[in-house]
Structure formats: structure tokens, C-alpha cells
Design goal:
mainly alpha; about 75% helix
Length: about 180
């Protein structure tokens, strides 16, 4: 029975990823989850109390996987500059991944305080990955530099997600350039 519930929960999360990545927040409804999984709508409520709870669990499940991929890319890089570049590139490479797109589809304002705090904590862990490399590069305030660097990455992610006029590769190159050389170009 426990295995069946676990499989159903995984199916609901996978359906939620698909709904969010295809149609954004509006697409994530309990009737749509029920339809995608073949469950009765009332059964969906046995697993999740709200849309926010679905998103919160998606973050708990997917964010560590995403962060591990960023961390692995950084570990393969040699030297602090290469680590910063890997940090930026890997995050932008993951933009097309359904796990990332699903989490990005929900704005923090639509979540309850607990869900927002979990997302903030997960992002804090991501930012913490790059602090040491920035310190090695000579930043006097590497934590602040890491937060600002993540802001550049987040802006690039939004630009890619919006389907901007620029090619995603151009956006990635510009983000890496900002990370490594600032606005001097």
C-alpha cells in the first residue's frame, strides 16, 4: 500500500511539472491533476491540501537535484573563475528542464509563507555554493557578490523564459560576461 501511495504521489508531481511547464500557474488545478493521473479529484486532496503544497513538494524534490547538477558542474571546473562560469552556465542550461520550469512557473507571492521560506532556503543553498570561489577571486564581500551574481542569473533565466528576442546562447554569454567582467563587456 505504501508503495502504491508513493507511486501515486510521484505521478501527481510529474503531472504537476507538466502542467506548470506547459501552461503556467493557471494550468495547475486539482481537476487537471486528476485528469492527467486518472485519479478522482477527491483523491488528489488525499495527497495535497492545496496548489501551494504541490509546488512546495516539487521544490523539495526537484531543487536538490538541480542544485546537485550545478554543484557537479562547479566541481569539474578548475579554479575560481571557471567555477563561477560553470555556476552561471549550468543554471542557464537547466532552464529548459521541466523540473526548473515548473518551479519557475509559480510566483512566490502565490505561495504560503512556509513554501516561500523553503524556496528562499533552497536558493540560499545555491548561492552558498559560489561564495568560496568569489572569495578566491578577491571579492571583499563574497556573500554579497554571490547574491548579486545570482540576481544576474535570475534575470537571464527570466529573459530566456520570456522567449526574448535574443537567442538563449547569447543570453548565457552575456550573463557569463557580466559575472566575470562586470558591465565593461
Amino acid at each position: 500500500m505504501a508503495e502504491h501511495r508513493s507511486m501515486q504521489r510521484a505521478a501527481l508531481l510529474d503531472a504537476a511539472r507538466t502542467l506548470l511547464s506547459e501552461g503556467g500557474t493557471e494550468a495547475l488545478t486539482f481537476p487537471a491533476l486528476a485528469e492527467r493521473t486518472g485519479l478522482a479529484r477527491s483523491s488528489v486532496y488525499e495527497y495535497f491540501r492545496s496548489r501551494a503544497a504541490v509546488v512546495e513538494e516539487l521544490c523539495e524534490v526537484d531543487f536538490p537535484v538541480w542544485a546537485a547538477e550545478v554543484s557537479a558542474a562547479m566541481e569539474r571546473a578548475e579554479g575560481p573563475t571557471a567555477k563561477v562560469e560553470a555556476y552561471v552556465r549550468k543554471q542557464l542550461e537547466l532552464v529548459g528542464d521541466r523540473r526548473h520550469r515548473a518551479v519557475m512557473a509559480i510566483s512566490a507571492s502565490e505561495l504560503d509563507a512556509g513554501a516561500r521560506e523553503k524556496i528562499r532556503a533552497a536558493h540560499g543553498g545555491l548561492v552558498a555554493m559560489i561564495v568560496e570561489a568569489l572569495g578566491e577571486m578577491g571579492h571583499r564581500q563574497p556573500r554579497l557578490a554571490a547574491i548579486l551574481l545570482q540576481g544576474v542569473v535570475d534575470a537571464a533565466v527570466r529573459r530566456i523564459e520570456l522567449g526574448a528576442a535574443e537567442d538563449p546562447t547569447e543570453i548565457a554569454e552575456a550573463a557569463v560576461g557580466m559575472a566575470l567582467r562586470g558591465v565593461r563587456g
